[in-house]
């Protein structure tokens, strides 16, 4: 049987075009594979990560040494670090992906048309997925596992600070994939440490089916604005907690503190508190104390500041900039609003459209807020921190899309697929 | 109740930014509307088109006069022309859209999470949809109706050749929308007849949620490459008919002729014939005669030409260019291939990924072709001409997407929506 991987040569191609071309060929081979073949490769990847842990940890040590020399902060070095324990945890994640259902082949719609034609819309892989990401080398393995499970070839463009780690990890993964009979080119590192390789990826329309940038806001903005390859925008979160006129004050304080302070550095943490004026006097003094206890600085509007006097609050006057800032720190913007509609208008104007929560005892308010707010996730009487593929029960997450096309909110395996229609007749013509 | 449409002024905005800004406000008002409110507006639109037909036909006469003066071909003038009958047919289409189910509010996924949170993924409008299209003024009404039904505001950027017609149509539609209590700004014509307004639309990221170019290949390519607003690519069709080794010759000839010649000017017409070498001697002489009878010129490879002698075929030698050409005329490229896999490799290399058909009696071949071909639609023993929203039973079609993200194949109302997650707890925190 002729292999689809052997159609044409790599002459005159740049290094990035070569990996993309190889990935396309691998993707063609992956697409029709049954789940068992993909799961076998995933389990082989997990085993190989464990067996070759020392090789990975040694390569990682080179990155850490370079980072130390460059005066990198200990927080970033911690994110970069791979220990034998962390490698075991990464391998466990890969086994977990193997245990998830295969999205490919799922029949999304199907019917028999009036003329007797059978119509089916079936999930298929996207093809070649490019991931552009920053420091954490665990993303290398996560992304490779999720793409392989969904039948996609992946092009990994990690940061230069993790180059040695990523090179070792991809070597281990490719050996495992190839060893289990699948094309090793399904998992490839994009060569080159400079920004040029990112630019080349962004121009590779027709070779790369989608780019998913994961990381800082500036990286994401660059890719969104410059790429002619379709992009899925991820992870910018200016999330709001709105405390309605009719509310359970205890619940509102708990949800606020959890949304803001349980893990402030992530995209589903709250960045702005909006309080209905009718509940401000009852809620704000308690909320400001609780925020102070959690070590949070409040950037308040004039009406919030009015309630700060008798509290422990560290409070600074809010400027317009505060409404649009994703702090990712122990800071929160806060304003008093006249109505639920004012809260919605504020959110529509300033939110990044990630997650907004309402705390209310009113069914009508919950319903109206849910209808009017146009974000990936609207939480009613629950923390913003639940917007997460793991929490949603997807078993895995490749990122949180904050765009409206293709995928919105936490992206699991189905979001890494497209569909095709299969039309079956017996000689049907029009 | 405060209206969300009255948040800020239009100072210092360009004309295109102003319509986009107004559309955003209208979209916010449309999103929570129940089906009945939208259907009432659609029926009012249909009635108004009929009542004000003469106003529309008179405006259309201006466009036609200008086109005649400019020496436009009669085919294009015919596409541009609105008669009272055609306006009635357009109004009937709008009533048909009103009768379709509302995609907004459909629960796509839903479950109760282990912690008791209720999770629902619900269809919501995209927001503001920009349509960039060429001559036919019926698209103006179609697009407005489909967008309104799916809760979206629409920005219509038609061709300058239809400017008077589109202006009259949009005036009639806006009056009807406003008269039924919905925001008239849900339907707007993009001002300006020059390319500048298209360029401005393409830069309006954050104001416009998606651009859908409909029309010629050059328009679509420009929008795909230059837009930073997300784009849905539509309508390029280099479709293939593959006649397998094991085949019903009569059926293969019928499907070939229907795919190529029933309506050659549309994107789902076949442009290339691939024939398995084992069936070439039995199939090609009959196929070449049938193509000749249908007035089709064959651009054949050497092995096809071998079979032309005893036939009526008009045949010219194929060049590489023929494999990638979307003729949209009575022309077809033709090649003999060694195997099903060679046919698939040819399709992967040259197809635009629209529709490919196989004619075969072999269940194994049908299955393998269906698995390996990566196009929006794979037809087994059926004409390529079935790839169509109407034929698929969608009741309407805004275009045929040939990209993999968001929508693939004929796009109906659900493809004009995004989703959001609704998380409902009773004080849940992490």
Automatic annotation (TrEMBL), chains A, B:
Residues 16-294 form the Aldehyde dehydrogenase domain. Pathway: Amino-acid biosynthesis; L-proline biosynthesis; L-glutamate 5-semialdehyde from L-glutamate: step 2/2. It holds the Pfam family Aldedh. PROSITE patterns: PROA. Its main location: cytoplasm. GO terms for molecular function: glutamate-5-semialdehyde dehydrogenase activity. Keywords: Amino-acid biosynthesis, Cytoplasm, NADP, Oxidoreductase, Proline biosynthesis. It is found in: Cytoplasm. It catalyses: L-glutamate 5-semialdehyde + phosphate + NADP(+) = L-glutamyl 5-phosphate + NADPH + H(+). Its EC number is 1.2.1.41. The keyword NADP applies. Catalyzes the NADPH-dependent reduction of L-glutamate 5-phosphate into L-glutamate 5-semialdehyde and phosphate. The product spontaneously undergoes cyclization to form 1-pyrroline-5-carboxylate. PANTHER family: DELTA-1-PYRROLINE-5-CARBOXYLATE SYNTHASE, GLUTAMATE SEMIALDEHYDE DEHYDROGENASE. Belongs to the gamma-glutamyl phosphate reductase family. This is Gamma-glutamyl phosphate reductase. It comes from Streptomyces kurssanovii. The gene is proA.
């Amino acid at each position: 049987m002729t292999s689809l991987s052997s159609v044409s040569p790599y002459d005159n191609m740049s290094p990035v075009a070569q990996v993309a071309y190889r990935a396309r060929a691998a993707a063609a081979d992956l697409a029709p594979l049954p789940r068992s073949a993909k799961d076998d490769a995933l389990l082989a990847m997990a085993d190989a990560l464990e067996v070759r842990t020392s090789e990975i940890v040694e390569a990682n040590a080179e990155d850490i040494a370079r980072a130390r020399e460059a005066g990198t902060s200990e927080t970033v070095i911690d994110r970069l670090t791979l220990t034998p324990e962390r490698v075991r945890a990464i391998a466990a994640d890969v086994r977990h992906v193997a245990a998830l259902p295969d999205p490919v082949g799922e029949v999304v719609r199907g019917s028999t048309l009036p003329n007797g034609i059978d119509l089916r819309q079936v999930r298929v892989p996207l093809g070649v997925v490019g991931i552009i990401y920053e420091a954490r080398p665990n993303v290398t393995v996560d992304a490779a596992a999720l793409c392989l499970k969904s039948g996609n070839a992946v092009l990994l463009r990690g940061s230069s600070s993790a180059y040695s780690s990523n090179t070792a990890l991809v070597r281990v993964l490719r050996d495992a994939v190839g060893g289990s009979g699948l094309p090793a080119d399904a998992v490839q590192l994009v060569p080159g440490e400079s920004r040029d390789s990112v630019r080349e990826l962004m121009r590779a329309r027709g070779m790369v089916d989608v780019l998913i940038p994961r990381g800082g806001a500036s990286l994401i903005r660059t890719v969104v604005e410059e790429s002619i390859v379709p992009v899925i925008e991820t992870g910018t979160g200016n999330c709001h907690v709105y405390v309605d006129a009719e509310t359970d004050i205890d619940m509102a304080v708990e949800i606020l503190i959890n949304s803001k302070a349980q893990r402030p550095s992530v995209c589903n943490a709250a960045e702005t508190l909006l309080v209905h004026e009718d509940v401000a006097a009852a809620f704000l003094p308690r909320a400001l104390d609780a925020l102070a206890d959690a070590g949070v600085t409040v950037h308040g509007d004039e009406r919030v500041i009015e309630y700060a006097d008798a509290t422990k609050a560290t409070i600074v006057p809010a400027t317009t900039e505060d409404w649009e800032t994703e702090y990712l720190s122990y800071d929160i913007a806060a304003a008093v609003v006249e109505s639920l509609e004012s809260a919605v208008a504020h959110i529509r104007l300033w939110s990044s459209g990630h997650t907004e929560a309402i705390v209310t005892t009113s069914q009508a308010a919950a319903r109206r807020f849910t209808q009017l707010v146009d974000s990936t996730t609207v939480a009613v009487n629950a923390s913003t921190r639940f917007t997460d593929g793991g929490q949603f029960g997807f078993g895995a997450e490749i990122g949180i899309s904050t765009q409206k096309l293709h995928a919105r909110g936490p992206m699991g395996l189905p979001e890494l697929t497209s569909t095709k229609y299969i039309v079956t007749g017996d000689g049907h013509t029009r």
